[in-house]
Amino acid sequence: MPPTQPQPRGSRRGSPQLRLRIGFLVIAMVLSVFGARLVQLQGLDPNSYAAMAAAEGLVEVDLPATRGDILDRNGKPLADSVDGLMVVADPELTTEHAPELARLLYRRLHVDYVSTLAKLREEGSRFEYIARRVPATKATEVVAAAEKAGYDGLDTRQDPLRDYPAGDVAANLVGFMGTDEPLAGFERTFDDQLSGTDGSARYEVGGGARIPLGESTITEPVNGKDLTTTLDLDLQWYTQRVLRQTVEDARADSGFAIVMDRQTGEILALADDPTYDASEPDQADKDNLGSRAMQDVYEPGSVEKVLTISSLMDLGLVTPRTKIVVPPALVREDSPIHDWFAHGTIHLTLAGVIAKSSNIGTVLAADHFKQGQLYDYLRQFGLGEKTDIGVRGETQGLLPARSSWTHQMQDRIAFGQSLSVNGVQMAAAINAIANGGVRIDPSLIEGSATTDDGDQVGTDHTTEHRVVSEKAATEMSRMMERVVDPEVGVAPGAAIPGYRVAGKTGTAQAVGAECSCYDGSFDVSFAGFAPADDPRFTVYVVVKNPRNGGGGGSVAGPAFKKIMSYALRRYGVPPTGTQPSRLPVDW
User: Fold this and answer.
1) At residue 261, what are phi and psi to the nearest 5 degrees?
2) Among 25, 42, 308, 315, which is 20 to 30 Å from 272 by CA?
3) What is the pLDDT of residue 30?
4) Catalytic residue among 195, 302, 443, 525, which?
5) What b/e sequence results for 371-392 when a residue is b if at least 16 CB atoms lie within 10 Å of its CB, and e otherwise?
6) For position 53, what pLDDT does the model report?
7) Which residues are within 8 A (CB) of 35 and not within 5 positions of it... i.e. 6 or more apart?
8) Which family does it belong to (predicted)?
């Protein structure tokens, strides 16, 4: 047999063509597996896998809207927003050192330790809020301190911080913010307008950092709208300082002062004392957080005589020269009426009754009213109902129902007792006399704004109506000029050199909160306007429970003078150059 030929070397491994076919088959099988998996992910069950991805690496955060500013009439901020930061945590990175990090945050940011610890350990979360609206410098320092201590996972985000650059100026009206919500004043009343709408951002993270090309969805925030008030910041500041000094000098419990533009009814200043710094409301006594001028009720005392006498003159029942015999006391039913000063029988004109502030003379004049007439006038002056100017908690005062009036009740209401008012109510009533007998709704907001209760307020919504005739208002003004006359009046300290001033003092027994009875304390006041023959401003000052023995003329009168003088200078109001009233006060 011929020898066997050797096989070609490598024949056991197959031919190159065979190996190539096998390789292609393997590759095809692998690609088929990947393709099937891709179909499953993208076509058959996408939602479950998207949810898993979100749980693993998607973060959603708020994008805070910038809160609208609260401005004075000249655009100066009473409240605005400044740069602030929120401190946030990634629990995946903070869990390991959560107790130590929670203690650091508790010491630096004063956040609750227990809840913070829980957030730092939140299983499955990649984003937790630790503190909101932190001053930028402080937030940055806290994050840096954590990193220096070797604790990862803290970061910051933009979070505008509320600021009150005017401090205590108009704080009783402006109010303040809590951490995440408005708590008082305009901040709360007009929150819907001021707050705007927060946006949001959703994005992927990996390894503690945002993935540049990962999923990213942003809904931009809508910033809040500004709120412009009628207040004049500089006049408000000055009014508050005068009021504070007045309250301190009189050793009084509290006080308030109001400045109104006679022509428009706009409130240029509304001061309360004691007050507080809106930047540090937690340092204030809670009784000082609201506006006493709007939320307290009190008996107006003799300032109310202006309304009584002007109503009588409007009816044509009396004139400034009506003669009245004023006895030492007036016995009415079981309760005699006295004047604040002792006297025998004196002969006063009606102008003299106002100049001397005689209770007895006022009551005798009021005898000319028919049943219900004085009540109707006081309602027209705005007493017994809220002004609705946008201050939460405003009281409506107390004007007894028409049907309940007795002759004795009318006597006391005629000189300012047995009824209650709030400060702005009374200021608006006196302003009606300054405005020629036409009452204009007071306002605190420029233009138009809607409260969170749905009420529209502001200068665009004010109304006016005539209460008394122009003649009656002019005669009343001339009578009020005699009050500050140093020769015959009870409040020479309210006179302003070079200007004609019309005013009226008030002293009223105060009703105690505990007994709901006269507790022996008094409220004193002064209301007036200038120039008397062409008024520009109405100013009303009330001081509660002065302990220095002073009355409306000696305590509130000088404060009126300072505030009115400043307002006249600030707005460049010249003296009219006419002669003051010389109406006779006796006969």
Assistant:
1) -80, 115
2) 308
3) 65
4) 302
5) eebbbebbebbbbbeebbbbbb
6) 47
7) none
8) Belongs to the transpeptidase family.
> Sheet harboring 84-89: ordered strands across?
128-135, 84-89, 154-158
Six-digit token string for 174 = 């402006």
DSSP, res 113: H
Residues of the chain with pLDDT under 70: 1-16, 19-20, 23-24, 26, 28, 30, 32-57, 205-215, 513, 516
Tell whether omega for the bond before 546 is within 30 degrees of 0, i.e. cis: no
- Length in residues, the chain: 587
Question: Residues 331, 568: contact at Cβ < 8 Å?
Answer: no
Q: What is the CATH number of domain 233-279+288-570?
A: 3.40.710.10
- The whole-angstrom separation of Cα 265 and Cα 425 is 11
Q: Please give the structure tokens belonging to residue 420.
A: 């209650």
Which helix (H) or strand (E) segment holds residue 394: the answer is: none
At 381, list the tokens. Answer: 């002056």
Is-catalytic flag, 302? yes
Looking at 3.30.1370.60, 1.20.200.10, 3.30.70.2110, 3.40.50.300, the CATH number of the domain 84-159 comes to: 3.30.70.2110
Domain ranges (residues) in the chain = 84-159, 233-279+288-570
Q: Which residues pair with 377 in a beta bridge?
A: none
Nearest Cα neighbor of 531 from 496, 559, 490 is 496
32: helix, coil or strand?
Answer: helix
pLDDT tens digits for 163-192? 999 999 999 999 998 877 899 999 999 999
Q: Answer for the pair 551, 507: CB distance below 8 angstroms, yes or no.
A: yes
* Nearest alpha-carbon partner for 81 in 223, 277, 281: 223
Residue 570 half-sphere exposure, CB side, CA atoms within 13 Å? 19
Q: Could you give the CA distance from residue 561 to residue 496 in angstroms, rounded to a whole number?
A: 6
pTM: 0.83
Rounded to an integer, what distance in angstroms lies between the CA atom of residue 447 and that of residue 456?
A: 10
Query: Per residue in 154-185, is it b (16+ CB within 10 Å) or e — as a string?
Result: bbbbebbbbbbebebbbbbbbbbbeeeebebb
Paired tokens of 485: 């006359």
